[in-house]
Amino acid sequence: MNGPPVGTRQARGLLRVAFGPSLVALVLIAAVVLLQLLIANSDMTGALGAIASMWLGVHQVPVSIAGNALGVMPLLPVLAMIYGTARTTASATASSSWFVTRWVVASALGGPVLVAAICLAVIHDAASVLTELQTPDALRAFGGVVVVHAIGAAVGVGSRTGRRLLHATPLPRWLPDAVRAAAAGVLALLGLSGAVVAGSLVVHWSTMHELFSITDSAFGQFSLAVLSVLYVPNVMVGAAAVAVGSSAHVGLATFSSFTVFGGEVPALPILAAVPTPPLGPVWVALLIVAAVAAVAVGQQCARHPLPPLQATAKVVVAAAVAALAMALLGFAGGGELGNFGDVGVDQATFGPAVFLWFAGIGGLTVVMSGGLQPRVRPAPAPAEPEPDDADVADPDTEIIDVDPVTAPVDVDPPADEPAAADPEPMGPPIDDAAPPADFDPEEHFVVDEGGEDGSPGNRARGAQ
Question: Where do Acidic residues bias regions lie (predicted)?
Fold first, then answer.
């Protein structure tokens, strides 16, 4: 059987992107609110207003109840909302054209904005009945919703079409590697900070037990446990700020790697992990956490070696992206907390400290891990041999090119042809028959006078 038409599938995908994460969040929030009201034996008068306020609180919109502002919203729900938006947009943009991708992004932003407008209207209507509930600022509400879902849409679309978009721009090809290195550094910093928080909770177990004992009901303790879990990312960001050399504060209480100023903190069990004065030397070991996270950034940057200039640019971009992400988490995890005052990290030093750690230690790790391509020097040209004196032609000598095909060849004359006479004789011919003019024949004759035996003599012999 054939599936639904392409247009129908795309329409379903756009609806899922526009309203899927928001409706899931509304259902979960409604279940929690109704359960709380049911256990407290309360009527359902302000249920809708509470649900709408909590949905806006998921998008970091402050909630005001009876004049007390709750600006420190938990980071875990907003991170879950970003993840849900990224996942739905990524599935909708798989192998899609740019035209469909633009519609996916528009749906990811348009649907939540519509839900935010409905929530504002519900809160405004409920505030007329419940005087303790106040309508939040509309600009802040719409701005928070747009920012949260824009981040999720950017992550989802970038995971599918990031490299294709990069090839169509003059941006460097190593940019995805830098973003991956920044993500590795952020996850390493938060993960190690979470391990430090868990260790601190074990050390301060008695304090955490006392904070759970402020209520006797099991449901109240369960609610404190759930609330503590929701605020775990906030405490991890604060521990990360302390690890890089910055500071975190809860009202007047300030915490850093070098000093601690005591103060009143909320009775939330997760806050039992904060150090108490006097500061012990173990908290200085938090600086090792920042160094290890910076090493993770350098190792990711060194996976694909580059020339020194490009490798340096990659490390700097990765450190800048990681510092921006941590600064954004620090801003989202802080705010006003009623009578306790401002809660959060020192924004003036948090981002720069993360950048310095990641750029410095990360760059050193790139050099030590072989992330730099060696400079290839051109091979020297072979030296030409010096010519001998015999091979050097006289500049005054005229050189004639002779064609080996047409050049004359010396051939011996045939045997039947007489050899050519020498035009220049070496001397006059010698005549052997004619004696010389002063020749005396008598000087050349010898007279034999005979032997002792009486043999005849007087025989003349010619001289030899």
Answer: 385-401
Cα distance between residue 333 and residue 74, in whole Å: 7
Stronger pLDDT, 412 or 340, i.e. the higher one: 340
CA distance 343 to 248: 8
pLDDT tens string 25-43: 999 999 988 888 887 777 7
User: Closest Cα to residue 159, out of 76, 88, 75, 77?
Assistant: 88
DSSP secondary structure of 133-150: B-PPPHHHHHHHHHHHHH
Nearest to 304 by CA among 386, 231, 232, 369: 369
User: pTM for the full model?
Assistant: 0.76
Query: Residue ranges per domain, the chain?
Result: 8-170, 172-373
Distance CA 16, CA 13 (A): 5
Q: Which residue has the tokens 């996942």?
A: 87
Instruction: Tell me the angle at which helices 138-167 and 75-92 cross, rounded to the nearest 10 degrees.
Output: 40
The rounded distance, in Å, linking the Cα atoms of 248 and 330 is: 10
175: part of which helix (H) or strand (E)? helix 175-203
Residue with tokens 């099991």: 218
- Other C-beta atoms closer than 10 Å to the C-beta of 18 total 24
Measured distance CA(447)–CA(411) in Å, rounded: 61
Other C-beta atoms closer than 10 Å to the C-beta of 345 total 28
Residue type at position 103: W
Beta bridge partners of 447: 460
Residue at 325: amino acid letter: A
Give the pairing type, strands 260-261 and 68-70.
Answer: unpaired
SS3 10: helix
Q: Which tens digits make up the pLDDT trace of 232-287?
A: 999 999 999 999 989 998 888 888 888 888 778 888 889 888 887 777 676 677 78
CA nearest 127: which of 60, 57, 66, 72? 66
